Predict the structure.
Amino acid sequence: MTDAHTRKVQEQFGRATAEYVASAGHAGGDDLQTLVTWGRARRPSTVLDVATGGGHTARAFAAFAHEVVAYDVTEPMLAAARAFVTGQGIDNVRYVAGDVATLPFADGVFDLVTCRIAAHHFAEPAAAVREVRRVLRAGGTFLVEDILGHDDGDANAFIREVERRRDPSHVRAYRGAEWNAFLRAAGLTVMEQATLAKTRAWDEWTGRTKMTADARAELEDFVRQAPERLRVAFDFRIGEAAVQAFTDRMLLLRAERD
């Protein structure tokens, strides 16, 4: 990441640590269970969880890996993850701060790398994927999940603006073809993939990033004034008084190092 973007990410997540630890959408769900099922089958000894956030993915993989490294660029978030995970009685996770663009690990030291619901914040996802490939052993596995970019350009631009107004550190969500290109270019081969719908309750989703009342009102106006077909693309549910929810899709990929 650029220094300016890194600071933006750190500012955004450094003030919302408790909200992300408490987030039900990050703590579990069919998406996390799918990644765990894929990961458990690989029988990894060493796991790196990139952009660990509240530590939920690291915690899940610690149940069957010998060691998990929880890695995040935002030190207050990493501290919150440590408190959450160790509070569960888990002692095989260690915590390292740093940028995904320059992972401070030797080549080929991890059996498996995870990155869950984070890559839309990366300034250069292709560079991040190359770093992931570097630290994976030959035959190692990369499990990545992120918001799936819409194939319709207008719909993609609309939801990107919604996301960025809610969270200024959001860069963009990528389409499946783009993810396959990132992985293939880095020397990773997609072995499995899944797409899951995820409904966002508006109050919780906007509250998690601590939007001001004015910023939230402006965002709701932006959604209401958007063309109907764009709102329909994400199943926006709008009541008389407020936006209630919308639904996007998550892309999950299991890729292996060549």
